[in-house]
Amino acid sequence: xxDNDSVKVSRRGFMATSAGTAAALAVPLNGAAQAAPEAASSxxxxxxxxGKRHQLQLDTRTTLLDALREHxxxxxxxxxCDQGQCGACTVLVNGRRINSCLSxxxxxxxxxxxxxxxxxxxxxxxPMQAAFVKHDxxxxxxxxxxxxCSAVAVLSEIKSGIPSHASADLTARPLLSSAxxxxxxxxxxxxxxxxxxxxxxxxxxxxxxx
Length: 210
Ligand code: FES
Ligand code: FES
Hints:
This protein is of the alpha+beta class. It is about 40% helix and about 15% strand. It has helices spanning about 5-35, 65-70, 115-120, 125-135, 145-160, 180-185, 195-205; strands spanning about 40-50, 50-60, 90-95, 95-100, 110-115.
């Protein structure tokens, strides 16, 4: 065997070894790709929405927002970002506001949930809904259900004396100031920029001046 033969052999050996290694690697990868998808688990959950009790059997990964919109067909709560950034999905749970896109429905066993549909209706508006209409607190309206649910909760927080980042004195009752309202509403984004009118609506409902 001359030097050239030795080079040929080692090249052939190298190719065979490489092909063998690639095949060995390919087997587990293909095996993993062909594995049967894990079965989704479901769970029963019961909660009250707008005064009506619901019993649902849900995929445990279902968010509260999707349970409301897709299973109960309450489409007032909107899906904006679906990741806790915009506030369009805000609903009240036991009187407190949450981003329903960030909460799993099965975590709400026994809870009392209020959506925009439960606050009022066209023939009997909630005072905050009426104030939004009066002060033009919206343009396209996409963020509005979340804004109104948040606004209702904010006035209740202030009334209960819960301070915010904008409160100068954490032990005193928070002021009904524009700074307080803006800080507390900062998680609700309005692409149409109706912020000034939203503050005016909230101020009127609170019976004060902002
Ligand atoms: Fe929930 Fe944007 S959709 S915060
Ligand atoms: Fe259009 Fe707020 S009214 S996003």
